[in-house]
Amino acid sequence: MTLPSLALLVGFAAALASFAVQRLRLGRRLAAPFAPPRASAAAGVRYAFTTAFLPWAKESARKHLASYLAGIVFHLAVFAALGWLALSLLPAAPPAAAAHALAAVLAAGLACGLGLLAKRRRNTTLRAVSTREDLAANLLVDAFLAAGIAAALRPTLLPVFQVAGAALLLYAPLGKLRHMLFLLTSRRYWGTYFGRRGVRPAPRPLAGPRG
Amino acid sequence: MADAAAVERALEVLTDRLDERTAAFLNACVRCGLCADSCHVHLADGDPASTPVAKVERVAKLFRRYHTLLGRLAPGFVGAEDLTDDALQGMVTAAFGRCTVCGRCALTCSVGLDPSAVIRFGRTMLLAAGLVPKGILANRDAALETGNGMRLSREDVVETILWLEEDLRQTLGDPTVRLPVDEEGARVLYAINPREIKFFPLSISAAGAIFHAAGESWTLTSTDFDITNYGYFAADAEAAGAISRKVIERAEALGVEELVVAECGHGYRSLRWEAPEWLGRAPRVRITSFVEKMAEYLEAGRIRLDPAKNTRPVTLHDPCNLVRNGGVIEEQRVVLRSAATTFVEMTPNRAENYCCGGGGGLLAASEFTAKRIESGRIKADQIRATGAKVVTSPCHNCIDQLMELNRHYKLGVEVKTLGEVVADALIFAAPAA
């Protein structure tokens, strides 16, 4: 095993352990609700993880379609890069065509990541709530994607991509990148809340009175 | 001004009482800012400090300082902040003056968190520090001390109901109409807002007419009738639980099957959804909104309506606590389509409807009156765009705000409860010969 591969495994294990500890120490446990549900919590959770991602499901996506699409592409690229990072531990290299396709996806993601960063610097509202860590986290992910592009186009640079991946995994639980775990937890609570109350998925309009 | 002990108490809330749901939300926010224009306060004032993300950040900065490694080691880098008097003062404006905890931002959040839950946690910290607006606390204390937020005596209640009963008999020309009080064995307890007794008695008459037309076995109660809950607005779970307990235990003591909550958004949410969690048990009575009841009567053919009795165009304001946070979404539409010839929806509507600006206890927080009226402009614009002449809303809190908006923005509409619109359209069976 190469040193970068080992670093990657250490980064992965550290991220996993850190996320597990954070999840376990998240806060005061909530009891199962006593109020009888109006609709299904499970349906709400399903909605939160499926339909709610669609561009027409939320007003924010409808009104800010460019930001929504940039976010989707950016995150798909990150998932693709993480997938490739895992596969990079295997001895086989991807075929050239697949590597080029991957480079294109990561390049699109990188462009979107930088675009979102530019928006953060330009937009008054976003500037007011941004921290230095917002900048650092975005640049770290961008660097990871850039290393992925380089490694896809030039396989000798794979160790650089692995080291970048290790750095990303080590940092992820510490800053805002931890939303990669807490988005899942958060969406589950969101779906449970709106699902039990019958708000999401939206109920069908009722028929009028008989007669 | 919060002294050191008050700051310490707020810190204790932050470090010891944070629940896993709120903590998950605080960990998940990426400050993307896509929630900004979901908020009526921000749309009205254009101030970045009024965006949901900025308000969440008031709490999140403190969360990062005391709950995360980087917040402890490099607070400046992650934008973490020490809990100080200044931080708490800033949070008062953010969590009360600029937020009605309506939850509209939760439906737009790209990550899937509920900013209003975070703001409510901020309010809990402010409660510990003694910084909740005095008007909200005064209502809470009145309910705890006297059983209702307006300190009405049992005699006030009974006398008003007797007068209303007499008046209703004359109006309907039916001497059999009753507004029963404290009747054990009734099927339904109808619990009300004390403002109805004092300022809006006709909404009680309207409910009485509807129950009478439906042939319902029902009763009012002269004690523990108050469905409003300023303990909830103050984020004081203990007080909120005590206030709700009185109403629920009164219903259980009367032996009714169903507790019907009058038209009050937060009253419904408190009793239907939050009280069981505060009390740690499911109530032994079914809890429903009067809106659901009216739709149920219509559906079952127990009441009949003549829309020709309401010919002016009617629009509907969806109360946030009843609709977005309560799930009563379609019933009021069924009712209105049967009760008026022209029902015009606002845009947007249902769960995505804008708050009227008067939620979250703001009607009792006089220090934020100007802000409340300013942020109500979004609702006023919505109403004006419908061209409606009547605005109805199944919430007395919203009704108060809508009446103020009507005057301030010169909307030229009449503001009515849903029950009043329905009562105007009731068709009564001809008396037996």
Explain what the structure shows.
The complex is a heterodimer of chains A (211) and B (433). Chain A has 211 residues and is an all-alpha fold. Chain A is built from nine helices and no strands. Chain A has helices at residues 3-24, 41-49, 59-63, 65-87, 96-122, 124-129, 132-153, 158-171, 179-196. In chain A, helix 1 runs parallel beside helix 8 (158-171). With 433 residues, chain B is of the alpha/beta class. Chain B is 53% helix and 7% strand. Chain B contains 22 helices and ten strands. In chain B, the strands form three sheets. Chain B has a four-stranded parallel sheet with strand order 2-1-3-4. In chain B, helix 1 packs antiparallel against helix 9 (115-128), helix 11 (154-172) crosses helix 13 and helix 17 packs across helix 18 (331-339). The longest helix of chain B is centred in the middle third of the chain and has 19 residues, at 154-172. Chain B is globular. The model of chain B has no long low-confidence stretch (mean pLDDT 97). At the A-B interface, helix 3, helix 4, helix 6, helix 7 and helix 9 of A face helix 2, helix 4, helix 6, helix 8 and helix 16 of B.
Can you summarize this structure?
By secondary structure, chain A is mostly helical. Chain A is built from 9 helices and no strands. In chain A, helix 2 (41-49) crosses helix 9 (179-196) and helix 7 (132-153) runs antiparallel to helix 8 (158-171).
List keywords for this structure.
heterodimer, A: 211 residues, mainly alpha, 9 helices, 69% helix, 0% strand, B: 433 residues, alpha/beta, four-stranded parallel beta sheet, 22 helices, 10 strands, globular
Helical stretch tally of chain A: 9
Classify the beta-strand content of chain A into a percent band: under 5%
User: Strands across the major sheet of chain B, in which order?
Assistant: 2-1-3-4
Q: Mean of residue pLDDT of chain A?
A: 95
| Outline of chain B | globular
The whole-number mean of residue pLDDT values of chain B reads: 97
Oligomer: heterodimer
Q: How many separate structural domains of chain A?
A: 1
> Number of DSSP helices of chain B?
22
H/E series of chain A? HHHHHHHHH
Rounded to the nearest angstrom, the radius of gyration of chain A is 21 Å
How many strands of chain A?
0
What form of chain A results from the Cα inertia axes? globular
| C-alpha end-to-end distance of chain B | 71 Å
**Portion in helices of chain A:** 55-70%
Helix proportion range of chain B:
40-55%
